[in-house]
Amino acid sequence: MKSLSFYRILILSFFLLTTHCSRSTDENTIVLRLDGDDWGIYFNDNADILSSEFNANNLDITTVPSNFRNLNRNYRGAIWIRKSFEITTEQHQKSLALQLGKIYQSDEVFINGVLIGKNNSAFGRDPDEFAFGRPRIYPIPHDLLLEGENVLIVKINSSLSTSAGVITGPIRIVTYEEALNGNLYDSLVELIFVGFYLFIALFFFINYFNIRDKKEYLSFSILALIFSAYELSKNEVRFFLINQFAILKFIEYSFLLILPYGFIKFIQDFFELKPFKYQRLYLLMQFFFIAIFAMIQNPVFWYNFIGYWDIHLLAVIGYAIYVTFNKFKDQSRGSAIHLLALIYLLYSILKEILIERGYLNSPSSLETSFLVYLILMTLALRFQFLIMKRKLQNRYERLKEADSLREKIFYYMDAMISGPLKSMKEKLISFRESTQKTKDKNLVKEVIEVQSSIDNVMDDIIELSRLEVLKEVPFKEQVNFISFINEVIPEDGITYSIKVNPETEIHNSLDLINSVVVRLVDFPPFKEFNHNDLIITQDLRGNVHFRFLLFHSNPKVSQRLFSDLVENYNTLTPVKVKWAIILEIVRLLGAKIDFKIIKKKYLKIDLGIAAIVPISELQPIKESQTISQTTSAKKQKEDWKVTLKRYWKFLKETEIKIPNFKKKK
Predict the structure, then answer these.
(1) pLDDT confidence of residue 377
(2) 64: which strand partners?
């Protein structure tokens, strides 16, 4: 019940998150969208681009946002980008701000030649030493904007090896309130994701303490905790706690460096794999990198290193996909779900690498993909737990059946054997205390007979106890009834006749049918009757009936046996145990058994068992075992299994070019 509640909370929360995490921006708050492919770019350390006399027609055209390092990889000086925009009278009356995406590395922003922001500081009053990768919001003074054409110029300096420029959006002029709310909203959405990661981590961490042998629970919770810490350390809310870029960046990169190892460890625990060679060396290497970062306290160096290090994440995902695909071929539980989650995660990592390098202008989906990965693996782990729980439940039920079997055996042994054993004990005491020189041979013979009766009844006690604990037939087979029953009925044990359609088949436990027929034929009270005839016939539905007709010249014998068969027993006897075995077999076969006295001298016992026969072959049964053709038959509702079999038989016959002229029996 707790697991079901957990699934409901998890799935409902996920749908609510995906439904409500998309924030619609009021178009009235957006004054201008500045992203596009009409920006001028200027690779030069001179600031002559700020001059009003500068000819903008000499600039090369580029797209913003993008990575300018891809345009000129060898250049390391200042990069200027320029764009003209127009402001209407209505827009000029609003309190506006310039909103830029993530900039690498440092920036200076000018509108109409006047500085409005520098390296994440409004108007450049107290610029941060490092602020790369952070979105920018610069308020625009009301008097600075002109009604009509205005010029925006951004100067970018970057010593980063892989990135330079405005890498991501949004790039627009909006109301100052919208800029702040939008930035705060994005941060809160990321925090909601972190909350889900922490919830999942805590859930499996608690479960691990209840089930210590499930190592994958511990490694999964650690993986979720590491990613939660990584996401939290790069969220913009972090600067409300501590406004230290270098310290927070060091924490972010530290968790990022150990994240792949946690991912690998979980996969190995999930699929019960041994660690690969040099795996510990891989972990030590990550801690070595963290130590290097601690000694070289330069975020630019850290970023340049991670820019090359993150390529190996593709190898980590490749290893995970390779392992999972092999397990999928082996039909390992959870491999299909894990493979699906890995494909989405691989897509998101590739996308993130392309975004960070400026090759792709698209929102990041890394947080979403990892949340999907955690949710899918949560379901996989819980399904494995339910399967394990089911196995334990089955094992418990088998043990319970064994206990029930033992109790029943002890009960029947006490009821059936205690009397003969007591009698044997008394006879042995009498035999031992006898003063005769020659022991009484008749007494010894009686003791041997008691022992023999105990041996015989023990087999019946064990069989009855075994049948009583069974809930259903363990194994079913489908065979032709005629060929099967001819081998079951002993030829010399009873007079019988078979009036059953030759194509009749039974689908049931053949061993139990064999057992119940033989036990009915050999049932001891039936031996007292002068005649015991068996007619095997069918009803209109095709079900097979074993009809025993027993005759005794003394009506009291038939009446007494009828009463014994239908009444509940207060005391057990060997004969009653044998009859109880027959009734238990009838129950397991899903059969029916009826008793009836006919003309006071005949005892009729009818055992009915379900059978399968084509409806078209059901005809009135005659004394002879051959089937005569009839001119008409009553239409009855045909079972779908019978219909399927009849059509299959027809198709098989139509495929044969030469007609089959075999005679029916």
Answers:
(1) 85
(2) 36
Band the pLDDT of 431: cuts 50, 70, 90. low
What are the residues whose beta carbons fall under 8 Å from the beta carbon of 596, sequence distance 6 or more?
603, 604, 606
Considering only CA atoms, which of 456, 531, 501 is closest in space to residue 665?
A: 501
Give the distance between the most distant pair of CA atoms in the chain: 147
3-class SS string, 210-245: HCCCCHHHHHHHHHHHHHHHHHHHCCCCHHHHCCCH
CB 328 within 8 A of CB 370: no
- Looking up tokens 């150990």 gives 258
Rounded alpha-carbon distances, angstroms, from residue 454 to 423, 430, 518: 12, 20, 22
Dihedrals phi, psi of 470, to nearest 5 degrees: -75, 135
* Phi, psi at 597, each rounded to 5°: -95, 125
Q: Which residue has the higher pLDDT, 381 or 592?
A: 592
Q: How far apart are CA 509 and CA 478, in angstroms?
A: 9
DSSP for 508-553, written as a single string: E-HHHHHHHHHHHHT-GGGGGSSEEEEEEEE-TT--EEEEEEEE-S
What is the C-alpha to C-alpha distance for residues 266 and 260, in angstroms, rounded to an integer? 10
**What digits encode the pLDDT tens for the residues 568-591?**
655 677 788 888 888 888 888 889
Residue 273 confidence (pLDDT): 87
Split at pLDDT 50, 70, 90, the class of 518 is confident
Instruction: Calculate ∠ Cα 306-307-309, nearest 5°.
Output: 55
pLDDT at 2 exceeding the cut of 70: no
**How far, in Å, are 39, 320, 563, 651 from residue 637 at the CA level?**
80, 56, 39, 22
Alpha-carbon separation of residue 170 from 99, 355, 356, 558 (angstroms): 7, 13, 15, 99
pLDDT for 399 beyond 70: no
CB-CB contact of 456 with 482 (8 Å):
no
Residues 298-304: what's their mean pLDDT?
Answer: 91
Backbone angles phi, psi at 165, to 5 degrees: 130, -170
Q: Which residue has the tokens 């009446």?
A: 559
- The closest of 235, 206, 233 to 221, measured between CA atoms, is 206
Confidence of residue 559 (pLDDT cuts 50, 70, 90): confident
pLDDT digits (tens, 9 = 90+) for 86-113: 988 888 888 889 998 889 989 999 999 8
Rounded distance, CA 486 to CA 460, Å? Answer: 26
Q: Which two tokens stand for residue 562?
A: 């009828």
